[in-house]
Each structure stands twice: as structure tokens, then as C-alpha cells.
Amino acid sequence: MGKTSICVGLGKALSTMGNKVLLIDCDCLRSLDLLMGVTERMVYNFGDVIFGRCDAQQAVYENEGLSVITCPESYDNISDYSMTWLIKKYEQDYDYILLDAPAGIDRGLHLAVTVADRAIVVSTPDLVCVRSACTAGREIEKQGVDNIRLVINRVSKKDIVKGRLLNFDSVIDQTQIQLIGIVPEDPKIRLGSMGRSIYKKGQVSYKALTNIAKRIGGKSAALKV
User: Is the pLDDT of residue 197 over 70?
Assistant: First the structure.
């Protein structure tokens, strides 16, 4: 569904707008550091902070104006209280903390939602991903977060017109989540998996992510592909 690339893109857009942004990987599959290009420097993760193996700043890695903290290989012994304590360690230093939750309904999602005051569900416009988005949205709402928005990702107008993908109204109707943005298909995003920078000015996805960042900040921005 592209949730991690959306997390990175939103982080970069918010940073470009003058905000200090921290990205925290809450998915044990751990791909955020790859897209951020900091893998070779990674030593500590947020589990190390929680269990006292390093101080809070030792687990933070900087690149391209963003800060990132990676996820431990498992969530064993990490409680809701521990996650809340962790966020309090950083919240005074950043304007936005973006938590990259896993796609499944597991402990990682629960921990992320425990400390979140709003959520963005990312879905591509196909039946499988839309069903998953419905489930995720219900789970997030069940945990008490009612400020939930939808990003429709990897949109191809041609495939929608030809009926190979769902149209926007169908995605919104099925998920029952308010739309905050539409991100077009962008082949350059694949370069992020090689540790190269993604979301640069001039890319088809750049303006879309910038507009979503503006809406997150309470500003008006056109909603179109």
C-alpha cells in the first residue's frame, strides 16, 4: 500500500514547510531506515531507549532534514505505558512525530495508535487494499482515535477509467474514512528501496504530498491528481 513511502514523503513535506519532524518505525519488518538512507549508521532502536541501553538522542538518526528512530525486532515487554513514556521523551523537541505502523492488525499498530492523536490510513484503489483499510480504520477507531483520514495512493487515472482500479468515490464509500489526499503512481519511488532520496521537487508525487502536508497543518490545498 506504500504506507512507509507516504510517511517519508509527508515528513519531508512538513520539514520543507519549516517543521521539525521525527519519524518512528513501529513495524518490526523495519523498512523506514532503508527509505531514509540511514541503515549503515543504525545501532540503537526505540526498544534500547525504553530498556535503558542508550539515551533518547543516541537512537535518533538524521538525514535530509528529518530525524528517524527504528523499530526493535519484536515488541516483547514493550507496554502501552512504555510507548507513552517514549513519546514524551521526544514530543517537546518536534513539531510532528509520524509513526509508521504496520499494515496488519498487530501489536505494532496498537502501540502506534496508543500514542497517536490522529491517524492516516493509506490504501491503493483496489479491492484487497481497500478491505484492509476498512479493517485498519475500524481498529484505530476502536482504540479511541476518531481523527482518521484516508490517503489514496498509487493512483493511475488510466487504470481507473478502464475499470482496473476503483474510483475515488468507491474507495471512500467502502472505507467510510474522510479523504485527505490522493497520490499518483510515481515510478521513481522504487528508488527509495535502494536508499536513494525520494520525493523531490518535480516528481509527480511531490505536489500531492505537499498538499497533504498543508492540510495536516490546517491550510487549504487543492484536492486533485
Answer: no
Q: Which long-range contacts (CB under 8 A, 24 or more apart) does 107-112 make?
A: 107/75, 108/26, 108/27, 108/28, 108/71, 108/75, 109/26, 109/136, 109/139, 109/140, 110/80, 110/143, 111/26, 111/75, 111/78, 111/80, 111/83, 112/26
For the segment 111-154, what is each residue's pLDDT rounded down to a tens digit?
A: 999 999 999 999 999 999 999 999 999 999 999 999 999 999 99
pLDDT at residue 183, rounded to an integer: 93
Q: What is the 3-state secondary structure (H, E, C) of the chain?
A: CCHHHHHHHHHHHHHHCCCCEEEEECCCCCCHHHHHCCHHHCCCCHHHHHCCCCCHHHHCEEECCEEEECCCCCCCCCCHHHHHHHHHHHHHHCCEEEEECCCCCCHHHHHHHHCCCCEEEEECCCHHHHHHHHHHHHHHHHCCCCCEEEEEEEECHHHHHCCCCCCHHHHHHHHCCEEEEEEECCHHHHHHHHCCCCCCCCCHHHHHHHHHHHHHCCCCCCCCC
Q: For each of the domains in the chain, give its residue range(s) and CATH number, in order of start.
A: 3-206 (3.40.50.300)
- Residue found under cell 477509467: 161
For residue 178, pLDDT over 90 is answered with yes
> By the 8 A CB rule, do 198 and 64 touch?
no
Backbone angles phi, psi at 24, to 5 degrees: -120, 125
Q: What percent of the chain has pLDDT over 70?
A: 92
